[in-house]
Amino acid sequence: MTVREELEIMEHRRLNPLASFADQSSGRPMPEAPREGDVRTCYQRDTDRIVHSKSFRRLMHKTQVFLRPEGDHYRTRMTHTLEVSRIARTITQALALNEDLAEAISLGHDLGHTPFGHAGEDALSRCLGKPFRHNEQSLRVVDVLEKDGKGLNLSNEVRLGILGHTGDYIPETLEGQVVRRSDQIAYVNHDIDDAIRAGILTNDDIPQEITDILGHDHSSRINTLVCDAIHTSREAGQICLSPMVDKALKDLRAFMFERVYRNPVAKGEESKAKDMLQRLFEYYFTHPEALPEDFQPQMSFGGLERTVCDYVAGMTDNYAVDKFTEIFIPMGWQVRG
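Request: output the structure for the sequence above.
Response:
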């Protein structure tokens, strides 16, 4: 018996009957036979594939909310992803669900996010003439774009969990639903923390009717939401919050849209970022020969528009600025002695 088989047996002994068991996965888009002497379950293997991917490494240089902020302590897509992963593991462990599946979904859920956060998403939507959705792009990254067009060939439960972390589609697995909720818990709370750091919000600004329920500081709010999700889900047999806490979270999110997400300080540079990405898209669409060599074959099966979109969406903030500068900004005169 391999270590992997031992782990799969242990899952059946310790996990909730409603959990997603690794040996009952519906498989991968391209079937793979188990490796001889394998020590990882399919979901553990998926986590490793995501962590070792190029798109995962790029998350550390992509904006969360504040565009290119001055200071080292603002969240990036990478730190957001790690916070979601920790919250999801805490909840799944308490509910005796599959932590490995939740971790894989968490680490892959934002791989398709654009540079400059949701500003980049808006810019590409304008370029395409239809909504660009980062959850759909994240699935495209793991299915098609990684490994030079081969994709990561992840388990279907991970793939659909990534797709369903936001938007209309709700994952069938409880682990996927946990990640969906963990994403909401993470981003609302860490965005408050960053907004306070930026000086556009104080703890006292948050309405008291919200803080009286969720807590009066960052740690308390997360603790309230996580504990409520655990206790309420245990009783309900599904992933949910109690009505009072759920309403408080929705009210907090609405408050953040009013005071932070649409705040001119937080979004002061958004119009520049959107214009930059639109101009990059238009340039590469009219100059496809300028696309990197590894993107050239994609045009034959993905089409020019889709290929340009994939390239721009995969850029980090700094890379987008550098390419824009290289293409559109004249080089300064060299100082001569």
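The chain is about 60% helix and 0% strand.
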